[in-house]
Amino acid sequence: MKTPLYRIFSTVSLWIRLGIVCLVAGSATVYGTQASEGETAMNQVNGFKVSKGTNISHWLSQCFDTMPPRRGFFSELDVVFIRSLGLDHFRLPIDEKELWTEDHEKIPEAWDYLKNALSWARKHELRVIVDLHVVRSHHFNAANEGGTNTLWDDPEAQERFLNLWRQISGELSYTDVDWVAYEIMNEAVADDPEDWNRLIAKAHAVIREREPMRTLVIGSNRWQIPSTFPDLKIPEGDPNILLSFHFYAPLLFTHYRAPWVDFYPYDGPVSYPGRIVEDAALEKNDYTPAFKDKIRALNGVYDIDALEKEMQPAIEYAKQKGLPLYCGEWGCFHAVDRKQRLQWYKDISTILKRNGIAHATWDYKGEFGIVDTWTLSVDWNLVGAILSE
User: Fold this and answer.
1) Residue 29 burial class via C-beta count within 10 angstroms: exposed 0-12, middle 13-18, buried 19 and up
2) Residues 282, 145: one domain?
3) Mean pLDDT over residues 133-157, rounded?
4) Do the domain assignments include residue 43?
5) Residues 242 and 277 in one domain
6) In whole angstroms, how far apart are CA 166 and each of 60, 160, 202, 375?
7) Residues of the domain holding 152
8) Residue 14 lies inside a defined structural domain of this protein
9) For the ranges 37-41, 253-257, 362-366, which has the lowest average pLDDT?
10) 13 and 125 share a domain?
11) Which among 10, 316, 339, 348 is most buried, taking Cβ atoms within 10 Å?
């Protein structure tokens, strides 16, 4: 192109040529300014800040047939009540199968519920974390449920995952970045942590194309447990990332008699604080040697100091990155001794407070809930333990 352009412009007066050069240079300057503004936006810290909250489970996620109808399960009145407790946000899990059909079509009613919840929250000054909880190609509990996750080795499944975020961002980008955040995915379970790191980078890029300043919540591989944080890789130079871990330690206590865990058959006593299961308790039933080994592997001596030590990898990682830390889930199943259960909640609340960690309990209504799913009675003792100073 240079030769014919040169021949054309060689016969044009000097002032016209200079004018064209200035015009081109000016266009380049404008383009460069726009790019610079985009980069600047990604480097600005928004006003999304949270302290204490809860999870709205089983409404747009993990919707079992045993749960009440969606219309009455969660409403504006619940938002008002959550705010009255002194909480400042809720985490809102959503599932692919609840918001999209198998043919990839959006389900209008479910999207209306989602947007209503965001509207109610803004009206009553609660922030919201929209959490992509379960997708068809990945379930955090697939192993225990006899399923498989195809997300990590199927390019088509990954592209569908990214397309979910294109659509979520497209639908919710109208919301104020100071009030709504996105959690890329709940509890990734990849055999290779690099698979999760690569997907984080792809999802981050997709969302940042439209929303350069939206807070993105990112957790580590393998259920977001603190010990896997050293393997986590996050996009560098992005100040609007909220690092998230989940905390259910010791699992043998917090999930005692929960039917979805593989140690469910153990029905002997458990204790907290102290040794969760005494050796003698394993001999009082006809457990197989393999099952006894499973319990022993999960067993240990726990108190508030041991729990805080277990959180340290996440705490240290957040300090190294200069980013805020968030405990997006913590809770204890109702089957354990009532007094011990409340003590566990008080201890976790104390640890989170003294380390400046924002958090959301699992869950608002459900088998860990502060509100009974059917009677709507409030467990005020549990609320007190959660909010204890």
Assistant:
1) exposed
2) no
3) 92
4) no
5) no
6) 19, 10, 11, 39
7) 60-250+303-386
8) yes
9) 37-41
10) no
11) 348
Quickly state the pLDDT bin for 346 (edges 50, 70, 90). very high
Residue 48 forms part of a structural domain: no
Please report which residue ranges of the chain form alpha helices under DSSP H. Answer: 2-9, 14-43, 70-73, 76-84, 96-99, 108-123, 155-172, 193-210, 251-254, 279-282, 289-298, 304-321, 338-354, 380-386
Domain shared by 23 and 98, yes or no: no
Cβ atoms of residues 361 and 324 within 8 Å: no
The pTM score is: 0.89
Let me know: does 105 contact 146? Beta carbons within 8 Å. no
Contact by Cβ (8 Å): 162, 203: yes
- Phi-psi group of 237: left, alpha or beta (phi > 0 → left; psi -120 to 50 → alpha; rest → beta): left
- Number of domains the chain is built from: 3
Residues 172 and 321 in one domain: yes
